[in-house]
Amino acid sequence: MHHQQQEHGEKGEQGRPGPDVRPAVRPLDGFTVGVTAARRAEELGALLARRGAQVLHAPALRIVPLSDDTELLAVTRDLIGHAPDVVVATTAIGFRGWVEAAEGWGLGEALLARLAGVELLARGPKVRGAIRAAGLTEKWSPASESMAEVLDRLLAEGVAGRRVAVQLHGEPLPGFVEALRAGGAEVVGVPVYRWMPPEDIGPVDRLLDAVTSGGLDAVTFTSAPAAASLLSRAAERGMRDELLRALRTEVLPVCVGPVTALPLEAEDVPTLQPARFRLGPLVQLLCRELPCRVRPLPVAGRWLEIRGHAVVVDGELRPVPPAGMALLRSLARRPGWVVSRAELLRVLPGTGRDEHAVETAMARLRVALGAPKLIQTVVKRGYRLSLDPHADTDKYGGAT
Description:
- This protein has helices at residues 2-8, 41-50, 70-81, 92-104, 108-116, 125-133, 147-157, 176-182, 202-213, 224-236, 240-248, 258-265, 279-292, 322-333, 341-347, 356-369, 393-396; strands spanning 32-35, 54-57, 62-64, 86-89, 119-122, 163-168, 186-191, 194-196, 218-221, 252-255, 297-299, 302-307, 310-313, 316-319, 375-378, 382-385.
- By secondary structure, it is of the alpha/beta class.
- The protein has a 4-stranded parallel sheet with strand order 2-1-9-10, with helices on both faces.
- Helix 8 (176-182) links the parallel strand 6 and strand 7.
């Protein structure tokens, strides 16, 4: 396949691409990816689309504006009036939001003055930047960006009798607060923003339908509450088991980090996480994993790859309509074997019992593939992929 792509990529005499040049297939071309994020969803969607993915956006949660959060106001007043010994800042957006909300309440200067006089710990570099932008200086920040390392430091220092304020950020902090309290600390949670169910549940329902019907190749999670919310909505609709089965088998669940993955892994759903807990590495992980799940097939002297809602033939992306994809997937389950018209009719979406519908969809599929010989008609029996069982990998450029 690589050899043929190079041939089509040859330049003309003037150093310009020749007339038969085709754009390279992007890593996520043909795949559909679900995005459950409420915050930074546009950024994540743009990163995925730039690499070829179709994006199905279904925010599983919404964030209550900080200025409307009376609990945060009460905690802020309490901390200003009764100073903590330590403040743990966990996210940049949360820390900035806390300061901005305090300013809106007329408490900004008092809060900053209070934070300037305590031991301020930052979970990672982004939080550290937010602290310094507010005119403050953190005492320490772990290189690992790990809350576990923050906990180890606090416990090593000793927390008995100390008042520790922990900025909450919508994620569970398993064991963190409990361990501090067990060590004798008074822990004050600072709820910088609150997760609520989405006002419009329609997109979440469409995402659930896509996951359980095979219309999605992967789904991304950037917060544990979003994963928990999706599971909860599936339970409300009586489709929790279907969702879990799909996520364990056909649909790839990718989480931005291990804490985000907790609600899924509690349900025995294996997840993938990037080494660095950021959106960019998450997208890079998808770019590696989804193409690796595709098995190239040597068919009628060409290489065929089925990618989500599209097909790659000899390195060229060929969009295929849903009916054609249903037929092709059925043929590809047993490449080289004959599949009857009756069996193909059963997988064809939205049709009656007339086998003529199979012939019509097959004709359109062949046109979409641009290579009619990929699918052979077997008279009175059905259709088969024209598999080359002893394909010469040198001749075809090598399977990847």
